[in-house]
From TrEMBL:
It is found in: Cytoplasm. Pfam families: MMACHC. It comes from Alaudala cheleensis (Asian short-toed lark). PANTHER family: CYANOCOBALAMIN REDUCTASE _ ALKYLCOBALAMIN DEALKYLASE, METHYLMALONIC ACIDURIA AND HOMOCYSTINURIA TYPE C PROTEIN. It comes from the Eukaryota. This is Cyanocobalamin reductase / alkylcobalamin dealkylase. The gene is Mmachc.
Length: 219
């Protein structure tokens, strides 16, 4: 987790995307690291085998964050998940922006390239972690509405892809060749997904249950 103030997030976004909390409200952005698959997901699936499992990863993350909430019985804790949408079909929060302003991972975007080679093409940005490269995910935002932290100092994310040509390579790979996952290794990483985990995420969602030993009947 990396902590942030809501005001840092709102300051870089248009009002339509602002979080409806005071600027000094304490929040945490929650990442999953490569070891999540073995340390959290597989034990969760094994334990919940007889219950209905629709999306193992989302349900696993929800389970663990509900346990976090239980540790603060006297506090209001709001949780926003990366996959949740508002009625307007906008995401509840922009995960990559939250990670960037919290200093958790650097959000590389088209504006970070001086000599833009893409013309009128739509180019999406991507977060890179200084330790895990692209081998991680942003899962949720935890908000503590009753805790104000006016003195919190904002950390800068680590700019680990600082060379112009590397940034172009990263955005090219992410936008046009994302299936092969090469963008994830744009820097030297300390840890990456296991072969089993790569196979899981490369498998269409409807077939992933079988990889975890869950039959469609059990589901």
């Amino acid at each position: 987790v990396s902590l942030l103030k809501v005001g840092w997030y709102n300051a870089v976004l248009q009002p339509a995307f602002h979080l409806p909390y005071p600027d000094d409200t304490l929040a945490f952005v929650v990442l999953s690291t490569p070891s999540m698959f073995d340390k959290a997901l597989k034990p969760f699936v094994s334990k919940e085998r007889l219950k209905i499992i629709r999306d193992p990863v989302d349900q696993c993350v929800s389970h663990h964050l509900s346990r976090v909430k239980e540790q603060f019985p006297d506090q209001r804790v709001d949780v926003m998940f990366d996959y949740e949408m508002l009625p307007s079909r906008k995401p509840k929060f922009l995960a990559q922006t939250a990670a960037h302003v919290a200093g958790a991972a650097y959000y590389y975007q088209r504006k970070d390239v001086k000599l833009d080679p893409w013309g009128k093409k739509k180019i999406f940005g991507v977060c890179i972690h200084p330790k895990y490269g692209g081998w991680f995910a942003i899962r949720a935002l935890l908000l503590f509405p009753d805790i104000q932290v006016p003195c919190l100092e904002q950390p800068a994310p680590v700019d680990c892809v600082s060379m112009e040509e590397k940034r172009i390579e990263l955005l090219e790979q992410f936008n046009f060749h994302w299936q092969d996952g090469r963008y994830r290794d744009i820097i030297e990483v300390k840890e990456r997904y296991s072969e089993e985990q790569k196979a899981y995420f490369a498998t269409p969602p409807a077939e992933r249950l079988r990889l975890l030993g869950l039959s469609q009947e059990a589901q």
